[in-house]
Amino acid sequence: MIPARVVVDERERASGVPDELAKLNVRVYFSRLPVADYVLNPEIAVERKSVRDLVASVYDSRIFDQAAKISAAYAKPFLVVEGDSKEVAILARNMKSFFGAIANVSIAYGLRVLYTANQRETALAISELLVQARAKPLARMPSEVPRKAKSTPLQQVYLLSSLPGVGRRLAEKLLSKYGTPRRVMALTAGELAMTGGIGWKRAEKIKEVLDSKYARYVEAAPQSRLEG
To answer: Does residue 228 fall inside a structural domain?
Structure first.
């Protein structure tokens, strides 16, 4: 089997995580990434923060800008918080406002948050994300309608959930509000941004995908495609 690959931002060289990834048989390619610290594939990227940096980023508002950028660039963004989580109570000025900020970026931008104790655990988390990204999808729950028997409403949900940053729940929300996929796709960026859970960055990305003229896609090696 071809070893898993990850593109890592140059500024992460000294963090220790790339070295731990190499021990896990993950091929590491360094690049100056404009967004995220680790890019696993065209859909999945990881931003790594120490507990101290996470708390600081909440109070200087960097976390909101970073969450907006990574969610606009990647459909499945992750935030790995590395260190002793008990430090949050020491460093945060107000626990309610801290968790409010984390909840906000998680819900508004679909940012998935993972906690690790050290560089080795961070590497393990990234390695397992790579494994799961390459694995076959898990079987659906019995209560879910099988793909081959999906109805028109399910087809409509699948259609909209393929848009950048739009999952099943958000697709259902859009359909409930606007009625049909055609009406949703005809919305302006401003109208889309007014729907809770989308925001301006995601709305602009959706309109870019819908309105850009098609140019034939040419498959490239993972490194050249992901490097920024």
So the answer is: no
